[in-house]
Amino acid sequence: MDIDEIIERIEKVIEPHRIPFREPWKVLISTVLSQRAKDETTGMVSENLFRRYPDLKSIAEAKLDDLEDILRPIGFYREKARRIREIARILLKNYGGNVPDSKELLMNLPGVGTKTANIVLSVCFDQDYIAVDTHVHRITNRLGLVKTKTPEQTEKELMNIVDRKHWKKLNSLLVEFGKNICTPLRPKCVICPLNDICPSASLSLKK
Length: 207
Ligand code: SF4
Known about the structure:
Layout: H1 3-13, H2 24-33, H3 39-52, H4 56-60, H5 64-71, H6 77-95, H7 103-106, H8 114-125, H9 134-142, H10 151-161, H11 167-180, H12 203-206
Helix pairs in contact: 2-3, 2-6, 2-8, 5-6, 9-11
The structure holds iron/sulfur cluster.
Residues 142-143, 181-182, 187-189, 192, 194-195, 198, 200-201 line the site of iron/sulfur cluster.
């Protein structure tokens, strides 16, 4: 299966997902907040957070219970409140208020794993990384591009088979594709532009 063709077909029907922030610290914190949360909730909570705390210093000095109140609509809000305050403090203390542009340094921050680091590096620093979340993992397995059990394995496999020129956009494209067409439950294979080449297309389409 030709990955260029797959991407081309998806691009014809899907507008890539856009993170509504440009400043690296906002992208970093909103991505940490997005872990195990719905995009809509993350967007709303991030907007509220950045309205009340418009810079790293104010987050670093925030009271934990106030942060928890703002983050309450998303899952694991207590843990996330502690993490983002700690991230703000570390960025101010160690990096002059900037977000580091290295994967190793990013992954030393609390709550930052490979997916979050890859999103920050590709969105904010234009670096070639594939951010593999549940959508990317599920869809690439359904398409038979990879046969993997974890997002980490998927990232490694995709780096071997996807041309580097596509790495940065793969996440934003497949997130929207996964929300609208190749959904976790009952994928909409009938309207999918890949239903003639996808090995997981509904059986009814293959008769
Ligand atoms: S045909 Fe169905 S399973 Fe395959 S990519 Fe499209 S929506 Fe997903």
